[in-house]
Amino acid sequence: MSRFLLLPFTFVLNHYNKIAYTYDILSWMVYGKRLINIQKDLIKKLPKAGKILILGGGNGKILPIIFNHAPLLNIEYVEASSLMIKLAKKYKHPRQSVTFHHADALTFKLKSEHIYAGFFLDLLDEKQIELLIRKHQFKNKTSYWYIADFQLNKETELYFLRRIQLFFTILFFKITTRHSINNLPKIEAIFENIGYKTNQYSDKKSFICWKIISSINN
Ligand SMILES: C[S@@+](CC[C@H](N)C(=O)[O-])C[C@H]1O[C@@H](n2cnc3c(N)ncnc32)[C@H](O)[C@@H]1O
User: Fold this and answer.
1) What average pLDDT does the segment 48-63 reach?
2) Which one of 48, 70, 107, 165 has the fewest CB atoms closer than 10 angstroms to its CB?
3) What CATH number does residue 60 fall under?
4) Which atom of ligand 1 is nearest to the CA of 35?
5) 157 lies in which domain range?
């Protein structure tokens, strides 16, 4: 009985343990430094203080970059892989305020002024993203989602090459992490449908991009 009750919780946990130690080298082999560089650009836009929830933070490589930009920012770090958290703890500066949560971001509930999701939302299907956004409905207009992710549409530069790159990326994650979706979710459209707007973005034509999104209904 107890195993049955635990199933939905344990189902997503630790799928990334298998690739935790090799994640950086694998992503570098396919995308060079673009995944970390786009996040460096996005991190420059983060608030200097307050509280931010990081979803699917991975191995914590972003933590020193955040500390250099905003040493006073309080971070709630939600990550499903225990090994990724172990690595992230090594990246954390001793004076950096980070609370690690080994949890499923889809069921994790915590109020936060801002949310950061770097290459995380593209792991979810559109219904899950919608539920996540609604669960964290912001209380005021000065709260933001900071998102770094892939985007692919007819405007995207090198569209066919990017489709092939994406196909192999998804295939790789399907084999190694039980990734379950076949296409990129239309992240921006989901936000817009439930009353959010994109305030800033890095580049509408780039396959790898960042966006800052806020609610318009408060
Ligand atoms: C593609 S990696 C990106 C990691 C990091 N954000 C980066 O940019 O390097 C996705 C991360 O999300 C975590 N993850 C996947 N599903 C999750 C979930 N439901 N809740 C929390 N973390 C999750 C994985 O364990 C993995 O570390």
Assistant:
1) 97
2) 48
3) 3.40.50.150
4) 8
5) 2-215
Number of domains in the chain: 1
Candidate of 14, 16, 104 to mutate for ligand 1, largest count of ligand atoms within 8 Å of Cβ:
16
From the CA of 213, how far away is ligand 1's center (Å)?
20
In a 3-state reduction of DSSP, which class is residue 208? strand
pTM for the predicted model, two decimal places: 0.93
Q: What is the pLDDT of residue 218?
A: 57
Q: Does the structure show a pLDDT above 50 at 4?
A: no
Residue of 164 and 5 predicted with greater confidence: 164
Q: Which amino acids bring their CB within 6 angstroms of ligand 1?
A: 12, 16, 35, 56-58, 78-81, 84, 104-106, 118-120, 123
Which residues, other chains included, contact 31 with Cβ-Cβ below 8 Å and sequence gap of 6+? 208
Query: What whole-number percentage of the chain has pLDDT above 70?
Result: 94
134 — pLDDT class (breaks 50, 70, 90): very high
Helices (H), the chain: 2-10, 23-31, 34-43, 62-69, 82-91, 126-135, 159-177, 187-193
118, 95 contact by CB (below 8 A): no
Residue to mutate (ligand 1; options 120, 176, 209; most atoms within 8 A of CB): 120
**Which atom of ligand 1 is least distant from the CA of 106?**
19
Q: What rounded mean pLDDT belongs to the chain? A: 91
CB within 8 A of 102, min separation 6: which ones? 13, 79, 80, 82, 85
